[in-house]
Propionate CoA-transferase (Vibrio ouci), 414 residues
Amino acid sequence: MTNGDVYRFRQLLKGVEVIDIASFGSAISPEYLINLLSEASWNGFSSTKYGFIASSLPGAGWCGGFNTLITSRNVDWVIGGFFGTVERINTCIENNSIEVHNIPQGVASMLLTQENRSLQTSIGRGTFLDPDSRGTLINANYSGRLSVSKRVDNKIEYRLPNSDLILVRGSGLTETGSIVIETDPIDLDIERCIRSAKARGAKVVVQAPNTIISNPTVTCSPDLFDGVFVPPKGLHQIGYFPPRYHQRTHNLTRTCDASYRISEGLRERIELDEELIVGIGLPVPAINHLRQSHSIMPFKAFVESGMTGQILYDGDGFGLCSNGKSALSQREIFQKIWDGDIDHAVLGAGEIDANRNIHVAQLGRKFFGVGGFVDISQSVKKLTFCHRKKAEADNLSDISYKYDPSQDVRFITG
């Protein structure tokens, strides 16, 4: 991090109150820009606080990504779909130090890519996110509440505050100096995010390595950006993976007995040539085991990043695949889900009650957020929920999925 970059970023922060982050959990993060923001916002006495919006907040355990901004006291409020890689968010929720709103990740992906940041949809209706229930505010006793959603007839209207600044990543440069927009390995619809931001009058900053790329997929003129920053290699990584992920293929996924038992149940459940959407948790290793041991039953498995590939990355690497490709952008995969064009969803199940309702946003005292679970479970007609043996709750106070007898629902216990 250079003093010149910090100074340039400090100038860009003038007049900024709300910031969008184009990210995907621990897999994709504009890490250099986040570090510059943290450094440049210090005024000699305290850090300036901002509101942040992201479909999936970037993080890496207790350090990196959005954790950096929390540690530096840069966060006034946050709206996001998934918080699972941001460990420090739970401390903030417990002590009410920042205002935290959770919305479905697909809804967030749509809103971040369009100029009008308002959307009416049935996604979230009947869940804890419904304004008729708990609503999007997680720390409900927090004062100074944002208005993020409201009921409109039989739908929910989600509305994001307009942002003043958007942080994005590029892959490099063309020989003529254009910025190559990052679409590989995950296409986060960054070009859409940029153009919608510029239409609203927001500033756009990009971190892009000083690397020449031939035959790029998407490029933008540098004139479209208010700031272009060349990141150090260590702050422009693709994915947050333990070193073991890069050593042997079989280390890409868990080998626990529960996942093997679930894979056997899925073998009878999955039909030939189905298109699956696979959720985080036990479904990932179970699908990997099934694909490796039953090659005579081909199927196509997507994750909510829009990627498909040979082996789905487990744990912190969720969203990426071994030998994978970005078959669909994040906006496109959620649109495909909403349209009912996915045959079968294989999802984890956190808490389950006697009425077959499920809650996944919080396990114990740790809040993860719903991610894409609500978008998927309310849109796909064939659902398989995978979980370890556990006691059922009598009645869940918060529900991420309300059992719908019109869907083809099966529970598989590992």
